[in-house]
Each structure stands twice: as structure tokens, then as C-alpha cells.
Design a protein that fits this description.
Radius of gyration: 21 Å
Largest sheet: 8 strands, mixed
CATH class of the largest domain: Alpha Beta
Order of helices and strands: HEEHHHHHHEHEHEEHEE
Number of helices: 10
Number of domains: 2
CATH topology of the largest domain: Rossmann fold
Shape: globular
Number of strands: 8
CATH architecture of the largest domain: 3-Layer(aba) Sandwich
Distance between the termini: 35 Å
């Protein structure tokens, strides 16, 4: 059997489904016409799904713009890496994928955080130039993401990027992720939207063998991405999924039921009518990057036997079989 290599999104989003995907994919349909993803984020899921066409969406226009930029760059990878290295050198940022320029004495003084110490000045200059520019460069924004703390996109009320530098580097893993991304998207039918999930899902036609994967903001967590999510939005999403179920459209949704003593009662009640699979969680909050006591599940609305999957029992916190 040929072992398939899992592709990591070159956006390296904290909390993405990269580490969980081998487990989650076992529950996906074997044949997919349109792969539809209302909350695509960094893209680690669609990059590992075989489909005839990809309909992708995210509410964050900056994420969508970076994806569109990278897809366009796939047609000329050499130009992308030429431009990328120029930006990196212009701002004096670390670049271990091609050369190690961090002084040895800095590494000795700051053994665990020397990348942050080395990149801080150049990163802050890049951030200032980006915020002061009328024409926002998607390449520069990509590097603010790559060199930024926890690799997220965060803007203040004035629309200025305001994330501090992270202890990270443009290393061989970043280059590999970019090359994998370019290889995957080139020649594929990929369509990006920047809409609210309700508008996106209502505008998207659903045909035979289409499949929707939903990884929404988590109602009971505290990450930056989830701060605008609330019970009203949660109920609206679940209502739409019930409508899709009635129409025969296949979907799978990831979510957490319990987290640090909190419980998502809305979701826990809703999933009783569907197929539930417990997932080994890697969820990390931006505000607390340690793993906590958590129950994460994947829920599907299609017959498990059709995908060759054995039934799995799910036990919530403190429940025993």
C-alpha cells in the first residue's frame, strides 16, 4: 500500500485540523463531487481531500486574500520564492530554509526564544510598513502571519495589524508546505468566497455526491477566532444543517462538547439524531496554549456502513460504558 503524505497548510493556523485529519478523514465519503467548506481557515482539510471541485469560504477576507494570492502564485513558484526571499532579506528576517543568519551568541543568550529576539526589529518594521501602505501586499501579510505570534491574523479597531513577533522562522517546513500547496492547487477547480456562512451555504448548489465539512468557531472556547460566535449563531448553523439533512446533502461537523468545565448543551442535544464519533483533540486556545480536558467529536448525517466505518461509542466527561 502506498503511504500518502499529509499536506500541512502553509498558513500554519493554531488549532487547524492538520494533526487530526488522518483520523477525521476516515469518516469522509469515499467519493466527493463538490467539496464544500464554509469555514475553511488555513486550509489543512481541503488540501487533503480528493474532489472534482472545491467550494471554499471564510468570513476573514485576509485569509481568503492570502489563499487567492498563493493559488495565483502556484503558476510561477520560482517568482514567488524570489519575491519572498527579497522581502525576508529587506527586513533582515531569519531564513533557515536557505541559510542560518542568527548569531551564535544570540542563540546562547536566548536559548529558547532567539528567533523572536532576532526577528523583532525587522518584523515591527514590516508591520509598520504594511499598516502605512495604501496597497496592502498579500505577500507581506503572509510574512506577518508566518513570523507572528501563534501565527494568527489580528487587527485592531483601526484596521491595523497588531500581532507581536513570534518565536518562529521561515524554515524548511514552511517551504515544504508552500511547495505542497502549490502542487495541489495547480490545475484544480477551486473557488473562494468571503461570505457569512449562512449566505455561502444558501448560495451554494448541492448535487449528488457533494459533501460539506464544517469546522465552525467553538462556542465554549476562548480563542481569537471564536470571539464573535454566540448561541444565536450556533443555532442558526445547526438549523441550516438540519435543512441540508432533509435534502439529502452529506455533511460532517467538528465541534467540542466540553472544555475546561464548560459544556455546549445546544450542540450536545442536537447531535443525538446523528452519528457521533469521538476525536482525539489537539485544540489549543490563543489565550491558553496548553491542552485542557476536552471532548471533541465529529458528527455525520450519513450511514457509517457506506464508508466502511465501524460504529464508535462516545462517552462524555465522567461517563462510563
Amino acid at each position: 500500500m502506498i503511504k500518502r503524505t499529509l499536506k500541512r497548510s502553509p498558513l500554519f493556523y493554531v488549532g487547524d485540523k492538520y494533526n487530526l485529519f488522518p483520523e477525521i478523514k476516515e469518516y469522509f465519503p469515499r467519493t466527493i463531487n463538490h467539496f464544500i467548506e464554509p469555514f475553511s481557515g488555513g486550509g489543512s482539510v481541503f488540501l487533503n481531500v480528493k474532489a472534482e471541485e472545491y467550494l471554499l469560504n471564510d468570513i476573514d477576507k485576509n485569509i481568503v486574500n492570502i489563499h487567492k494570492f498563493l493559488i495565483n502564485s502556484a503558476h510561477n513558484k520560482s517568482q514567488f520564492f524570489y519575491d519572498a526571499l527579497k522581502v525576508i532579506k529587506d527586513y533582515g528576517l531569519s531564513r533557515s530554509y536557505c541559510e542560518d543568519i542568527v548569531p551564535l551568541d544570540l542563540k546562547k543568550e536566548w536559548k529558547k526564544t532567539y528567533y523572536a529576539q532576532f526577528n523583532r526589529e525587522g518584523y515591527n518594521k514590516l508591520k509598520k510598513d504594511y499598516n502605512n501602505s495604501d496597497l496592502k501586499s498579500p505577500l507581506n501579510l503572509y510574512f506577518l502571519l508566518i513570523y507572528g505570534f501563534n501565527r494568527i491574523l489580528r487587527f485592531n479597531s483601526k484596521g491595523e495589524f497588531n500581532l507581536p513577533v513570534g518565536n518562529v522562522d521561515f524554515n524548511s517546513n514552511v517551504k515544504k508546505a508552500l511547495n505542497d500547496y502549490f502542487s495541489f492547487v495547480k490545475g484544480k477547480k477551486i473557488h473562494w468566497s468571503n461570505l457569512d456562512f449562512k449566505e455561502f451555504m444558501k448560495e451554494t448548489r448541492h448535487e449528488k455526491d457533494d459533501f460539506i465539512y464544517i469546522d465552525p468557531p467553538y462556542l465554549i472556547s476562548f480563542s481569537e477566532y471564536n470571539k464573535l460566535w454566540n448561541e444565536k449563531r450556533e443555532k442558526e448553523l445547526l438549523f441550516l444543517l438540519d435543512e441540508l439533512n432533509e435534502k439529502g446533502t452529506k455533511f460532517a461537523i467538528s465541534n467540542i462538547i466540553s472544555y475546561k468545565g464548560r459544556e455546549n448543551k445546544i450542540f450536545k442535544k442536537w447531535i443525538e439524531k446523528y452519528n457521533i464519533f469521538k476525536i482525539k483533540s489537539n485544540y489549543i486556545s490563543y489565550h491558553d496554549n496548553t491542552k485542557k480536558n476536552i471532548t471533541e467529536v465529529l458528527v455525520t448525517n450519513y450511514d457509517k456502513e457506506k464508508t466502511g466505518i465501524q460504529t464508535l461509542a462516545v462517552y462524555y466527561d465522567n461517563e462510563k460504558p
